[in-house]
Structures are given as structure tokens and as C-alpha cells.
Amino acid sequence: MDNKLTYSEIISLAGNLKMVSGQIEDLLSVLKEQDYARIGDGGDVWTGDAALMARQTFDELVTRFPEFINSINDYADYLVNVVASR
Length: 86
Hints:
Layout: H1 7-35, H2 49-62, H3 65-84
Helix pairs in contact: 1-3
């Protein structure tokens, strides 16, 4: 079985990675603007100690998303650069 990727397949995968990182960014934005505001103090969906804890955990995670997105984009760029140098 041949598991080798062609250069065009690698370029396509890099493009898919960029697309997915954009989707992650968009989803995070929607969550923060719409759903997230409804949880915790003053929220109309979920309140109380568990909601507050969930919101605090989410706050901590949200600060790391730019790092995750940059890592995905950097890897996609790396793949393109490797193929371009061949």
C-alpha cells in the first residue's frame, strides 16, 4: 500500500488547515458574542456556582485560542514552504 502524498495534496491539506483555523476563530467569536453572554451572573440560560465555574474555565481557555490558531496557521505555512522548496 502506497501512503505517499503528492505535493498538490500537501498544498491542499495546508489550505484545509487554514480554513479550519478560520472556522475555529469564527466559532469562538460567535460563542463569545452570543451564547457565552448568557451564562453566569446576569445570564438567562444558566446561572449559579456551576455556571460561574464553567465561565471561569472558558475564560482561561479563550485566552489560549489565538495561540492554537497561530500554531495551526504556522504549520500550514510550513507545509507550503516545504513543498515550495522542492
